[in-house]
Amino acid sequence: MPARGSSEALERARALFAGARRITALTGAGLSTASGIPDFRGPNGVWTRDPEAQRLSDINSYVADPEVRRKAWRSRAEHPAWSAEPNAAHRAFTDLAAQQRLRTVLTQNIDGLHQSAGLDSGSVLELHGSVFGVVCLDCGSTGTMRAALQRVAAGEPDPPCNSCGGILKSSTISFGQALDADVIRSAQRAALDCDLFLTAGTSLTVQPAAGLAELAVRAGADLVVCNAEPTPYDELAAAVLREPLVEVLPELVAVPATGSDEPLSTWGDPGTWS
């Protein structure tokens, strides 16, 4: 059974962090709420307050309905990621990287706040893409969101691709779209190549990202779940924490490391493959 209850779970998580030598993290929308970016399904989530807003993130609605696309472009111009600043939870991962114990941050977020907090882009894998880029659904051409929004401001409510005239959308993964296969393979390798797998601010309900937690546990890693609400993977966790991420993550990262200096072998380490 996972350690629960504020004091017991926190002490268990502190001990796991102290002994961990290679940590992979999966972060979700709950990490950025303290930076002013609302989540989707929480009590004050975007879709909770406006269920119709979910259509803007549905690929079939987006392709079929020009009005959905026009609303989506207006929404992108107003996205809080343009002005958001990293919070203490984001900075905790930067501190963990400085300790040379962070393997990778796998993030479901599209806001770029891990990188803004100083985390090297090579240490962040954006599972659901980025709000700061655009891609053509027809020819695959890419560009910047800022340039596309300049076209919207200049009078193009649904700007087509400059290369082929096709439909442009943000370079994020919408519902109904498959995740990039190379990104998923890299995420799976990171889940297999750690001795501690941390989830922070994610409900662990969206697949295939959520399944990475179970993959890590099956490969021998300890799982620590930090989320305000219960998740489907709590029973697999060694510790489940409900405290605010801006408080608990800096505390965990600040725990002095006690791990061995001996080489660490994991399922994701090619040296262990036969």
Report a brief summary of the structure.
With 274 residues, the protein is an alpha/beta fold. It contains 10 helices and 9 strands.
What does this structure look like?
The chain is of the alpha/beta class. It folds into 2 domains: 1-37 and 85-128 and 178-260, 3-Layer(aba) Sandwich (Rossmann fold); 46-83 and 129-172, SIR2/SIRT2 'Small Domain'. It is 32% helix and 16% strand. It has 10 helices and 9 strands. It has a 6-stranded parallel beta sheet, sandwiched between helices. Strands 5-4-6 form a 3-stranded antiparallel beta sheet. Helix 5 runs parallel beside helix 10 and helix 8 packs parallel to helix 9 (211-218). The longest helix has 14 residues, at 6-19. It is elongated. It starts with 5 loop residues before the first helix and ends in a 21-residue tail after the last helix. The mean pLDDT is 90.
